[in-house]
Amino acid sequence: MTAAYDEFAEAYTAENDDSLMNAHYERPAALALAGEVAGRRVLDAGCGSGPLFAALRARGAAVTGIDQSEGMLAHARRRLGDDADLRVADLAGPLPFGDAEFDDVMASLVLHYLRDWAPTLAEVRRVLKPGGRLIASVNHPMMVNLTHRHEGPRPDYFEQYTWTDEFELHGRKAHMTFWNKPLHAMTDAFTAAGFRIAAVSEPHPVPAARELFPGDFEILDTFPSFLFFVLEAG
Fold first, then answer.
1. 44: nearest Cα among 135, 176, 139, 174
2. 3-class secondary-structure state, position 126
3. Is it true that the peptide bond before 153 is cis, omega within 30 degrees of 0?
4. Which residues contact 66 (CB under 8 A, 6 or more apart)?
5. How crowded is the C-beta side of 29, counted as CA atoms within 13 Å?
6. pTM of the shown model
7. If 209 and its partner were Cys, which of 24, 37, 137, 169 is the partner (CB 3.0–4.6 Å)?
């Protein structure tokens, strides 16, 4: 997956900056769940080219960003400046931080790339302060299941399975591979890692996007694509 993101980093950055799904749906929802972050130390886990990092920093947070793709981090450095704390790290492995360093970890659309969440959640829990928050968004499992049932074959909702999808990113085709989990498998993984589920959210896109994306807005406004969690470290 690292090589894939390096290959289409420029197209992905352009898409992420202004698309309905990212700029007008996922990112505003994640920021709303984060709330007041001024003075908090925040880890943007899977920061990509840095749009969420920039928004958190503008709200007064001290932000560190990690991503496994050097190509994406190169775009983040151009966006954020050379003084931004950006590091190469793989969420599937140990994180390059000490214990209890962060008030919040933002995991924006990254967990669904991982087959096994347990090692990642254990590391996130380790680097969070007691009472710290993990704010995570993932592909909504019902959306995934219904999409695949429509396209065929008919997958078992309760099965954990992987698939590769093709996306159009500013005129360029990109392939991304995901792992789908049923909701109970997600919540079981969170609680097993020592998190308390503080909130589960299925937000709407921001109303202003209706005029920008008149066709797609109605679909997204009436059926969720992403599922959000606010989790507190015990």
1. 135
2. helix
3. yes
4. 43, 44, 45, 46, 47, 86, 87, 88, 89, 91, 95, 96
5. 29
6. 0.94
7. 24
